[in-house]
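Task: sequence in, structure out. Protein: DUF2087 domain-containing protein.
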Amino acid sequence: MSRTVYPFYSSDISSLARSLKRQWMAEAEAPGHLQILNMLARSAGFQNFQHLRAEHDRPAPAEPQTVSNEVRRLLRHFDDEGRLLRWPKKFSEQRACLWALWSGLPRGEEWDEPTVNAAIRALEAFGDHVLIRRELVEGGWIGRTDDCRRYWLLDPAVPEEVAELAEQVRLRRAG
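Result:
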């Protein structure tokens, strides 16, 4: 049978020693095992050893989950700076990541090809800005002229399921 280990901490060892001495001197004979445990617990600010055990056995409150599991899974494709690290294999993940990239592009401008390439390169870290540019155009996020000289952002409605991902990636970019 394994025994449970209860951590013990005292911020001031001197006051712990004084408290133990005072409690020990109050005993007529040498204290037993449980009495020593109770003395130690009282010295650390608990009522007795049972109170100390109850505090350590209490489950820690669950931290509120700030990001959904789906978004957490998609965020693994982005680095700490909000740049896309790799091209996802699954089509649905590609689309979600493209929404996050599209949301990071500058608004209200028209670009030439080198400028749009530079803007996309700033948002990705795996070295294939051409793939991303092509997917953004074919997916309806970016418009371009027939001769591919001018590019501009289109304004599609952001689906609710990717809004959280786009926000988390934006926060990474800002931080």
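Residues 13-57 form one domain.
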